[in-house]
């Protein structure tokens, strides 16, 4: 089944070229079924790239999904055109009266800032509080995961001695959790961040359940309140080229940056990286939509 997105959204052409099933408003409104309403708070600077990454995964399930994009009102994006934001995004004040079946809160390249110094932190905490009563399940990614762990559960972050960047091996810690249904015992996933969370604090918080862990990259998938909140510290949504683009960007800036680990063939940045996590990315998003959103959300919120 498809995802419903605005007809003129630039990501549509990318997804259709990849044979991802999408539809516009007219076709969706003629179908007599109950679609899922998913809200995406996109905090990433290059919003169009993130849109395509997430929609690719949300559009590969048997469910019809209506997508809405949310932006912060207290922070102005400098890397996405105002026209794009005006056409495809809304603000919290415009949607806070609604209920949503699922929500995604993305990462943001600001993890070295204390949370309270982020200029939209107050707005974000209001949104995160709102999700607890108005969203069936919220998926938090990278910095968004650390923000949720800190705000909801008091889990601190700490700065790493060097950036965690690369593709790392992860273990499944609980095969009974439906979010990981179909996962291999070990699987690969990308990370790109400068901070981490203390595993001891996760283990000491009875509300939290650590589902997957990497010896090199640390805690990866954390679940709370029977899946109402899911935190993923890495980037399963990344394309094969994303870490390479980030690496070259940082090199161009003159930053003292290491080559992403286990990513380029033979650790050679001149060689084309392979996507070794795609199947598990699709599986995780499919499991989330099915077991934590579709199976749990009311047919009519009223």
Automatic annotation (TrEMBL):
InterPro entries in alphabetical order: Class_I_gatase-like (IPR029062), HST_MetA (IPR005697), MetA_family (IPR033752)
SUPFAM superfamilies: Class I glutamine amidotransferase-like (SSF52317)
Gene: metA
Molecular function terms from GO: homoserine O-acetyltransferase activity; homoserine O-succinyltransferase activity
Any single biological process term in GO: L-methionine biosynthetic process from homoserine via O-succinyl-L-homoserine and cystathionine
Protein location: Cytoplasm
Site (Important for acyl-CoA specificity): residue numbering on this chain: 111
A matching Pfam family: HTS
UniProt GO cellular component terms: cytoplasm
PANTHER family assigned: HOMOSERINE O-SUCCINYLTRANSFERASE (PTHR20919:SF0)
NCBIfam families in the cross-refs: metA
Major place of residence: cytoplasm
Keyword tags: Acyltransferase, Amino-acid biosynthesis, Cytoplasm, Methionine biosynthesis, Transferase
Protein's job: Transfers an acetyl group from acetyl-CoA to L-homoserine, forming acetyl-L-homoserine.
Family: Belongs to the MetA family.
Site, Important for substrate specificity: residue positions: 192
Annotated active site: 142, 235, 237
Binding positions (substrate): 163, 192, 249
Name under which the protein is recorded: Homoserine O-acetyltransferase
Pathway the protein takes part in: Amino-acid biosynthesis; L-methionine biosynthesis via de novo pathway; O-acetyl-L-homoserine from L-homoserine: step 1/1
EC number: 2.3.1.31
Species, as recorded: Cytobacillus dafuensis
Recorded catalytic activity of this chain's protein: L-homoserine + acetyl-CoA = O-acetyl-L-homoserine + CoA
């Amino acid at each position: 089944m498809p995802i419903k997105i605005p007809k003129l959204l630039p990501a549509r052409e990318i997804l259709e070229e990849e044979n991802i099933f999408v539809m516009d408003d007219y076709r969706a409104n003629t179908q007599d079924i109950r679609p899922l309403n998913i809200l995406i708070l996109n905090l990433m600077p290059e919003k169009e790239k993130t849109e395509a990454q997430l929609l690719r995964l949300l559009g590969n399930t048997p469910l019809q999904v209506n997508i809405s994009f949310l932006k912060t009102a207290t922070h102005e994006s400098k890397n996405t055109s105002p026209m794009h934001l005006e056409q495809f995004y809304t603000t919290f004040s415009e949607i806070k009266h609604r209920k949503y079946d699922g929500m995604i809160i993305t990462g943001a390249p600001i993890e070295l800032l204390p949370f309270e110094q982020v200029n939209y932190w107050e707005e974000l905490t209001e949104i995160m509080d709102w999700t607890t009563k108005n969203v069936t399940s919220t998926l938090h990614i990278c910095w968004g995961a650390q923000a949720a762990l800190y705000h909801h559960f008091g889990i601190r972050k700490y700065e790493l001695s060097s950036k965690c960047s690369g593709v790392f091996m992860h273990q499944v810690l609980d095969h009974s959790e439906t979010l990981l249904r179909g996962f291999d015992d070990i699987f690969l996933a990308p990370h790109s961040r400068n901070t981490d969370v203390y595993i001891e604090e996760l283990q000491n918080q009875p509300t939290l359940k650590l589902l997957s862990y990497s010896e090199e990259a640390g805690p990866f998938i954390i679940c709370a309140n029977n899946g109402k909140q899911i935190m993923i510290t890495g980037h399963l949504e990344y394309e094969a080229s994303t870490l390479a683009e980030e690496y070259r960007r940082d090199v161009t800036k003159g930053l003292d940056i290491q080559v992403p680990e286990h990513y380029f063939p033979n650790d050679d940045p001149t060689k084309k990286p392979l996507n070794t996590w795609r199947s598990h990315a699709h599986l995780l998003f499919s499991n989330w939509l099915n077991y934590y959103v579709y199976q749990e959300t009311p047919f009519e919120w009223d």
